Amino acid sequence: MRVEKIDGTEIVASSGSLPAVHLFRFKDIEQAAQPDHLRRMFDALHGNDVQLLSEKIDADIRALKKQRGEIIAVAAEVNDLTLNAQSPLRQYVRRQQQFDSVNTAAAKAEFEKIDKASNIHRTGNNAVVAWDQIAPDAQLEENAEQIKHFAESHRKKILTADGSVVLGMEDLATLLDHENAASPVAELLSSMEKSKDQAETVKQKLDDFTTAAEVSLKATNDEASKKGIVVVTNAREVNRKSFEEATTKLETYRELIEKMNGLMVARKTLFNELRAKCIERSRIRRETASRITNTLAGALDRNVLVITAEAQERHDTANFREWLSRCGGFNYARETRIVLTTI
């Protein structure tokens, strides 16, 4: 294929294919010439590759912003645990020493039964609290009411004024008849009712276990009191509870640090993916600019007019730095460092 001027002068050397032709109306050209539209028109010259990459980049940036919020939330929890010098976590070593000082061999022998009974009672209480938070019986009851409402409201739509079923809707009417024991909806509601009863049984057994554990703990404490051991005011008991609180806070701290490490690893991975996409988008823009420049160089007389296309792939970075300097008070004329330290 040969491309020539009207006088027969060759513009583009013969080749088997030509670049895709883009048609623009004058209004399109005028609007595209506006600063905020030039980039869009420029990127469109490479199909929708840049647009797709930009959408993925924006999605990654949103994910990084969301992840930043999660990291800040975890950091705030760690700060709450460690900020106060008198907090259980900061006092962990001291509380352990205080507990060890009164937790002698003789004391262990006397308090072994009390500790065991107390642990059983505490475990039962924790199980009851956790079960109440789940509240499966209440959820099942609410879901059953929703299913009944669904079946009744949709069944009304397939009944005529005299209450008969619309022709062709018989199977659906049978399905939605929750009062008919043979209906699948009725069978579902029946199974949910049984599950609700089982959930209530679980709740009752948990309550029974906790009540029995409470009775056993009281009996153990009464027996210890008869031997002259004052459980409530005993220094060992006080220090034991204090040390247990610090131990719980330490476990929470370790879980938060592990969560933070996971978030930071995921953040680095996401950032590397974002960086790769940005590099790829910049490469496409540079290639597009080079292709435009070369095409125009072959089509125009360089002695009369030279047009060069520049991708300006770093323009977004310049805008960000300008915004950061304006709104954040940072001065890029000097080196800025952010140092994170851990204690």
Short description:
This protein has ten helices and two strands.
| Number of helical elements | 10
Strand order of the largest sheet: 1-2
> What does the average pLDDT come to?
78
Q: How far apart, in Å, are the first and last alpha carbons?
A: 72 Å
Derived structural class? mainly alpha
Uncertain segments are: 332-343
Order of helices and strands: EEHHHHHHHHHH
Describe this structure as you would to a colleague.
The chain has 343 residues and is mainly alpha-helical. The protein has a domain at 110-232. It has 10 helices and 2 strands, in the order ββαααααααααα. The protein has helices at residues 26-32, 35-44, 49-82, 92-102, 105-134, 136-156, 170-176, 184-226, 235-299, 315-328; strands at 3-4, 10-12. A two-stranded antiparallel ribbon has the order 1-2. A hairpin with a 5-residue loop joins strand 1 and strand 2 (10-12). Helix 4 runs antiparallel to helix 9. The relative contact order is 0.11. The model is unreliable at 332-343 (pLDDT under 50).
